[in-house]
Amino acid sequence: MTPRDASEPNGSRWSDLDRPPLNVTALRRGLLRPEGLWSEVEVVQRTGSTNSDLVARAAKGEVTEGAVLIAEEQSAGRGRLDRQWTAPPRSGLFFSVLLTPGEVPVARWGWLPLLTGVAVATGLSRTAGVDTALKWPNDVLVTVGEEERKAGGILAEGAGDGGVVIGVGINVSLRDDELPVPTAGSLALAGAVGTDRDPLLRGVLRSLENWYGKWRAAEGDPGVCGLQEAYAAGCATLGRVVRAELPGNRSVVGEAVAVDGDGRLVLATEAGVQEPVGAGDIVHLRPA
To answer: Which residue numbers delimit the BPL/LPL catalytic domain (predicted)?
Structure first.
């Protein structure tokens, strides 16, 4: 008989049969290739934040580009603006990757979270069979009933010398009574054809590898590699009237008309000017 693990709910890692653990052996077999991007895949049962852990390891030189760290549960997951990200064990995909795009000018690294958003949306659409959209800059939206709900988010942080750690959180099997806020959603609630996290994670990471390779080959030029066009095509923010909550307690209201070459959201304001927004919180005020 397998010993009971007191750290798991009810003392058993199999306590929720609808949420089996990830198969790290199968993930490594499917993702690690001699000429591929991914260099190692590790799954931990529980941690505070995969981003914090991977940033720390990168700073110590313990990992190389392509390291993937996945947690079955995060106790201190973070989103943009230091918001917390919480979910039941094994109910989603919570992972971070280390990228070192040395040949890409640092000025273009701001595209990495948007690139990841495109890759996540593309990978989930293919493997889960759900329609996804992106809220600028890096929220992943799904439709539950007739409502847009946030099912995922992305956070990028500098790591070590010339590295970037990108964290991704995706709600996969969360039920209505488990949602942290009413505006949250999950792939299951959006009618996903399957919630097996192994193929979902493989699909997302393969999509990320593909987009990152094209972006890097184009020296980070989002127009040349098609990233700018792909992001705009999948961005639910464009065409909407939004409010941008900016640093310094300033806000701007306008129609989101474009994502420029630097990845900034361009707002056409009532004053007749176009204002690019590079950082801030975006609130959708009206449908497109």
So the answer is: 31-216
Q: How far is CA 126 from CA 31, 72, 122, 138, 188, in A?
A: 17, 23, 6, 19, 15
Query: What integer pLDDT is reported at residue 7 of this predicted model?
Result: 39
285 and 272 Cβ atoms separated by less than 8 Å: no
Q: pTM score, two decimals?
A: 0.91
Quick one: pLDDT at residue 75? 84
Alpha-carbon distances, residue 108 vs 180, 245, 258, 275 (angstroms): 34, 23, 17, 20
The tokens describing 139, both together, are 């929220």
Rounded distance, CA 253 to CA 138, Å?
Answer: 19
Strands in 163-171's sheet, in edge-to-edge order, are: 40-44, 67-71, 92-99, 163-171, 147-159, 139-144, 132-135
Question: How do residues 241-281 score in pLDDT, each as one tens digit?
Answer: 999 999 889 999 999 999 999 999 999 999 999 999 998 89
Residue with the two structure tokens 């923010």: 237
The amino acid occupying position 57 is R
Residue 2 has a pLDDT of: 34
Amino acid at 233: A
